[in-house]
Amino acid sequence: MLNCAVVAELIPADAYVADVGSGAGLPGLTFALARPDLRLTLIEPLERRVTWLNEVIDDLGLDNVEVLRSRAELAVGQVKADVVTARAVSALNKLAPLTIPLLEGHGQVLAIKGRSAAEEIEKAAKVIRKLGGTDTSVVTVGEDLLEEPTTVVRIVVGR
User: Fold this and answer.
1) Contact at 8 Å (CB) between 113 and 52?
2) d(Cα 16, Cα 11) in Å, to the nearest integer?
3) Quick count: other Cβ atoms within 10 Å of Cβ 88?
């Protein structure tokens, strides 16, 4: 959980965040707990996970997060986020087309990745540019808190 929570420092204040493929709530629920200023939509296609996520949200009394049962590509138009996050969803060349359209032309994608982040950026560079990505970088967070820092691919879209 901590390797997800540290990513919250990359998100601007009062941002609207969409978490694609929320599954067990990572990183979305950690952001909702750590950053009450954020508004979050957890996008998850599987009904049993949606049910579980809603139960956890109710149990924790979180009022800054909602769950949308949908595939990411079908959520375009329903969700307009400032920041889109994803963890363990797909390789970047497949993840970019699922996440960048949810920004509707500007914002950032924060994809929690492993050691292969730079290699994934190389393979996805053309797709990212085609979708409006203007700057892609590897960012490391949590160096002073975690034994192994968290690696994030940041894709800036628009301005």
Assistant:
1) no
2) 9
3) 13
Residue 18 near residue 102 (C-beta atoms within 8 A) = yes
What are the tokens at 150?
């968290």
Strand order across the beta sheet in which 133-141 lies: 65-69, 39-44, 16-20, 83-87, 107-113, 150-157, 133-141
Q: At 112, list the tokens.
A: 């929690």
Q: How far apart are CA 43 and CA 150, in angstroms?
A: 22
Q: Break the chain into its structural domains and give their ranges.
A: 2-157
158: its two tokens = 């628009």
Report how far residue 134's alpha carbon sits from residue 127's, in angstroms, rounded to the nearest whole number.
11
CA dihedral 51, 54, 55, 59 (to 10 degrees): 170
Per-residue pLDDT of the chain (159 residues; tens, 9 = 90+): 887 889 999 999 999 999 999 888 999 999 999 999 999 999 999 999 999 999 999 999 999 999 999 999 999 999 999 999 999 778 999 999 999 999 999 999 999 998 889 999 999 999 999 999 999 999 999 999 888 999 999 999 986
- Structurally, at CATH architecture level, domain 2-157 sits in 3-Layer(aba) Sandwich (3.40)
